[in-house]
Amino acid sequence: MPNIKSAKKRVLVNNKKAEINKSEKSAVKTAIKNFNLLIDAGKVEEAEAIFPKTVAIIDKAVTKNIYTKNEYIKYSFKC
Fold it and tell me: Which secondary-structure segment (H or E) carries 45?
């Protein structure tokens, strides 16, 4: 555990940011999984309806610098 006040604050901020990043990554993976499940089940119309939302979730994660451009391309091709 750090002794300096600013180092203590950095630990708290880093932990909070790690939790936010974890939830954002989980949301991206869940959106992709739900989209792929609809495709596998043959529900193409529902998949077409959910596709823009899935891409928007991925775009938001890239905008927040949670994923890089290359990861964006990788996840975009998964859905």
Answer: helix 44-63
| Helix (H) / strand (E) containing 57 | helix 44-63
- Unique residue bearing structure tokens 């089940």: 41
Number of C-beta neighbours around residue 29 at 10 A: 13
* Cβ neighbours around 21 below 10 Å, total: 15
How confident is residue 21, by pLDDT bands cut at 50, 70 and 90?
A: very high
- The model carries a pTM of 0.80
Rounded to an integer, what distance in angstroms lies between the CA atom of residue 66 and that of residue 25? Answer: 8
- Specify the long-range contacts of residues 48-51, CB closer than 8 Å, at least 24 apart: 51/79
Residue 74's pLDDT band (cuts 50, 70, 90): confident
Spatial distance between the Cα atoms of 74 and 24, rounded to a whole number of angstroms: 16
pLDDT of residue 22: 96
